[in-house]
Amino acid sequence: MDTLRKMLRPPGNGVFTVHTAADVIEEVQRTIYPSTPIQKIPQKWEASINKLQNHTGPILLGVCSDSGGGIHRGANWGPLFVRQYLYKHGEFENLLDIGDIKVIPHLLHDKYLNDETISECRDALYNNKNEKLPVSPLSIAEKVCDLINELPSSPPIFSLGGDHSVSYPLVKSWLRAKKKQGKKVAILHFDAHTDLMEKRQGIDLCFATWAYQVLEDLEDPSLMIQFGIRSSGQPKNHWEKTLGIKQYWANEISSQTIPQISDEVIAHLEKFNIDEVYVSVDIDAMDEEFASATGTPEKDGLSPEMPAMILSPILNQIKVTGADVVEVAPWIQRIDENKIQDTVGAKKTLLTAQAISQFLLDRLE
Ligand SMILES: [Mn+2]
How far is Cα 198 from Cα 248, in angstroms, rounded to an integer? Predict the structure, then answer.
């Protein structure tokens, strides 16, 4: 637990800042730790990490990193603001919010760093140049998830991103844990984009490549099932033929076709005797009308209810044991409704993110 604590900060403190959004951070922390004096909150949070040992309900983890994005940034604020909406509108009986991973916003993954940089960053994060812990957001996220997934209770992790690159460590760790447990697994991925590039400008770990980079760990590539795709350089049959994955593009998804789509997915998962699924939701799967505060808003997308409509019948048959909601970029300087207009549609986007997050948290087991 001490190792975990070293890599984490209290919920809402994932973006390294002194004044920015201090009021929202305080609001979120006061909700999580009611009747705790504000200066006692760090200790309260530290103590709460010990509960992980015996916790079986979902774990909430924030990954405030957007250095794997590439168009509009700002998803580093997703974990704080989605939490604000979640705790304001939702009820969570058995949720353990373990906080946010430590993020140095200029870094992505340790494999891109030289030894000197790693030791400087170890000094900054852990006050020890020789600390044998990772320093980049994706590397820390993977280590944190590994430590949780290795617990005997193996509680389900629900993560808030961050740009979509953060799903790479989250899913990699989940896949590794499930392999050890002998579980057969699949990934259900909601997104406007396929995220199936092998590399983007020479970088193999980023928002556009994470889905490709986890394919090798699946028993069959068709166990990556994507929903809501509509912005791709290649047509659907290119992805299905070259990579063998399964896709439902946004124009195939409507309230009429959803029951059939869910049935098809269930039949496919049953054919492979799948025990558990991971659900990754890029908020841009939803139409830009409902999710404009994101890195790459796209029109002609899903309505906010559709992911839950598709997932409900599937999750009645097959357990969901890991999930994330990513790419919520609420551009906080514009979100204070009393002072500045919400020109990016942050409020609507946050309501969309809150609804799907709540749905997934209710289903995780
Ligand atoms: Mn994505």
Answer: 21
